[in-house]
Design a protein that fits this description.
single chain, alpha/beta, four-stranded parallel β-sheet, globular, binds zinc ion
Length: about 300
């Protein structure tokens, strides 16, 4: 059957074809799958997980960033740009992936950063050395890693449900119900994190890649990122600055992440007599899912920061 987004996307060009809606779905209405489901393209893992939860069986969700690839580095081939242009909706966060920011169209995209209150980008953005220009992060007035606060991601879930309901009105109720359910699961996770991080010996989070600003913001921790950009080598000045701070605050653990070389964190850890531990920024698919990976992060934080819950 004909749906709202068909008209919206296809405009005048396919207006005739849309009259024969069933045929149009199979022959040229590229924005739906052969069985007429809206196609949702999610820019990277947490948004893919969220789109799958909210889209359910009513939507066909695909991810743009292959598993194990740092999403900041993603480059889009012609096929992916076409996929993105033809999608009913592209779900992304402006500022994470310049290639995606460039390819999206306003009418068929949902920038999750517009759904929540953002926080300013890291303060030492200008202190890194060469290579920063290649990343999208640096020109942004806000920190784009918003999915690391489940309460903000719950808001994104609700807005995404509304957006999908508008795009595919025939299944509006399903999108809204699943969005509510997803937001509730994220709310429960948020409460666990709040409770689990209430009483800790240390509240300072020294991270290799400054991705945890929202987590710190939400749970009243203080993030000290060695670099903003996971690929930039920090300057010796920055390293000694962080080392001094870590010593002063009695930091016992330097956090590193799976997709980034642990070298810098290891050097720093040995300088201050700390250990390293992996904290997952969830930029790529974890072994479980978003919820289980965030619960693993909670355990890692509780151990490292000496929290009693
Ligand atoms: Zn990042």
């Amino acid at each position: 059957m004909m749906s709202g987004f068909s008209r919206l996307r296809a405009g005048g060009l396919l207006a005739g074809a849309a009259l024969f809606a069933t045929a149009a779905c199979g022959a040229g209405a590229a924005e739906t799958t052969p069985d007429g489901k809206p196609e949702v393209v999610a820019a990277f893992y947490p948004l893919q997980w969220l789109s799958e939860q909210v889209g359910g069986s009513d939507a066909q969700v695909s991810g743009l960033t292959p598993p194990g690839v740092e999403p900041h580095d993603v480059e889009l081939g012609i096929q992916q740009v076409t996929e993105l242009k033809n999608a009913t909706l592209t779900v992304y966060v402006k500022g994470i992936q310049p290639a995606v920011d460039e390819a999206v169209e306003p009418d068929t995209s949902f920038d999750a950063a517009t759904a929540v209150a953002t926080i300013p980008a890291g303060e030492h953005a200008e202190e890194g050395e060469e290579g920063e220009e290649e990343h999208g992060h640096e020109e942004l007035p806000y920190d784009p890693h918003l999915w690391l606060d489940p309460s903000r991601l719950a808001t994104v879930a609700t807005k995404l449900g509304e957006r999908l309901a508008t795009a595919d009105p025939a299944h509006a109720q399903g999108y809204k119900e699943r969005a509510t359910k997803t937001a509730a699961a994220l709310g429960a996770l948020d409460q666990e994190l709040t409770k689990g991080l209430t009483t800790c010996t240390s509240r300072t989070l020294v991270t290799a890649h400054e991705a945890f600003g929202y987590l710190a913001d939400r749970y009243k921790l203080k993030q000290v990122g060695i670099t903003l950009d996971p690929e930039t080598e920090p300057s010796p000045a920055r390293l000694s600055e962080v080392a001094k701070l870590a010593k002063a605050e009695g930091v016992t653990t330097i956090f590193t992440e799976a997709l980034v070389s642990p070298k810098v964190a290891e050097v720093l850890a040995s300088q201050v007599g700390a250990k390293t531990a992996v904290l997952d920024p969830l930029e790529s698919k974890p072994s479980g899912d978003y919820l289980s990976a965030m619960r693993d992060n909670l355990k890692t934080l509780q151990t490292a920061l000496g929290c009693t819950a």
